[in-house]
Write the structure tokens for this entry.
Amino acid sequence: MKTIKDSVHDHITVDGVARDLLDTPAVQRLRRIKQLGTVSLVYPSANHTRFEHSLGVYHLACEALSNLGVEGDRAARVEAAALLHDVGHSPFSHNVEDIIHRRTGKYHDDVHELFVGGEVGSVLRDHGLSPAAVADLVAGEGRFGQIVSGELDVDRMDYLVRDAHHTGVPYGTIDHERLIRELTFVDGELVLAEGNVQAAESLLVARALMNPTVYSHHVARISKSMLRRASERLLETTDYTAEELRRLDDPGLLVALREADATANTARRLCNRDLFKRALWAELESVPESVLAANHDVVRECEREIAANAGVDPEQVILDVPARPTMTESSTRVAVAGEIRRLDEQSPLVEALRAAQRSQWRLGVYAPEEVTAQVGRAAVDSLGLDIDGSLVTERRSGWNARLDEFGDR
């Protein structure tokens, strides 16, 4: 048994299979991957890691299993999955995951091949656990996979509280102890017991407030876009494969970017926080459907067209088109008057928060500060946006002058 002091959950006791997994290279690698990627360029204290988060998820999973009365090998499998749920992450967490997926077809929770061999697989088998069964739980499969990955998963409960704690932003505060205590299974589905609509709403509100303030802060989006572009160039211009990139840690990726001629300048900019600026920041209603639906190749073509129209190098233009707003937590199941209902069927808050998400959504075009004016005007024309191009520079000045509530601007 090992007891670890944690900044969020105080003391975490690690025992059994989790104790033996703790010192495997796959888990220790998570010490070198920041939980929030480039968000530390906005919030300097946001340097917590996937390792800390994995311990927190393990701790909450143990609490949930105890309250649900789950014991033995069944509990051990879930505990192992909770501790291992992030070992498939690429460097800087989700920031370069799309690049990996386009080339390998794998997201961070596709971990079957990582569990088959190596020390992780050996530890699991030594404890009589099937690596494939644990990997299935990481992917959220089966009855107990919902505890690790689902609408009411312990992953979300830990990261909201932990991210709020380390950024200093108060919006991620939720009553995770009550949420854990009130989990129950109904017909094989993980739900919140009667009288917990407000607890479920708290998850929804916390995620909705943390998104624009932390996860989608414009500086975080710009730096993520720059890192993503540089990682893609690294794969295009060097012998690195997507699988090799996937297994690097944060320092390893930065070293690789510094050493490659095609990406050294971006690495310097990221390390010195010499970031691109917003040339354009457009609302959802201003963006044509063809741009919203554009795939990666179309986005790159749009970037080249904007650069040509602006008279700048194509490497000086980044087009950032986020996915349409979604709210996974709205499908959370809650017991109400003896029935199991979806939260979006029960709570009037859901539609209001969806409207807020739509109003907060922004398309971004980023460029070095000295060329933002011409890039912004060219982007309006090239993308067919429904805004007055003559106002781009004026609006951008207003955006930069407007103080965000939080963060290192």
